[in-house]
Amino acid sequence: MKNHNLVNRTELSSIFGKNVSTIDNWIRQGMPYIEKGSKGIGWMFDTSKCIAWRETKLREDASSNEKIDLDEAKRRKIAAEAKLLEIELQKKQEEVILRLDVEQGLTHAYLTIKQRLRTLPDRIVPQLAQSDEQFARELLINEIDDILQELSQLDFDENYPQENQI
């Protein structure tokens, strides 16, 4: 499954409400990343580490400024609290997306089970016609194990077609 804390540059810029060039500037200033982007490979960031870095950076910037008045301090506090609430909202929205991904993945798994089980008789009946009970039992167990093995290897990070497209 996709780790919901890992995002690319575009997703990170959306989380912070900034453009990608701001993210690039933050990277130059030392914002942590999981994987550096290069040709054909996108940047990957851990949102929790980036948020922590940004909060630290904002605190450092605020403390390095000369004296600020009470109104400016209140404005900064309100802005920081609003940003944290926005980030929490975006995390919750990501959970909804993940639930949709799970639903699609499970639908795909159930359709795979249905398809494989419905074709089971066609695959084994010819072999059962002239076999004893022990052979039939082993054949069925092997076929079921093959189906379960295939299901265990499904990639739930893929986008699956809707049921009516299969």
Structure overview:
The protein is mainly α. Helix content is 69%, strand content 2%. It contains 5 helices and 2 strands, in the order E-H-H-E-H-H-H. It has helices spanning 9-16, 20-28, 47-64, 70-128, 133-152; strands at residues 6-7, 45-46. Strands 1-2 form a two-stranded antiparallel sheet. Helix 1 (9-16) crosses helix 2 (20-28) and helix 4 (70-128) packs antiparallel against helix 5. The longest helix is centred in the middle third of the chain and has 59 residues, at 70-128.
Please bin the fraction of helical residues. 55-70%
Distance between the termini: 22 Å
Gyration radius, to the nearest Å? 26 Å
The stretches of 5 or more residues where confidence is low (pLDDT under 50) are: 162-166
Proportion of residues in extended strands: under 5%
Count, helices: 5
Give average pLDDT, whole number: 81
- The main sheet orders its strands as 1-2
| Structural category | mainly alpha
Taken from the alpha-carbon principal axes, the silhouette is elongated
How many β-strand runs?
2
Order of helices and strands: EHHEHHH
Biggest β-sheet strands, sense, barrel: 2 strands, antiparallel
Q: Short description, anyone?
A:
With 166 residues, the protein is mainly alpha-helical.
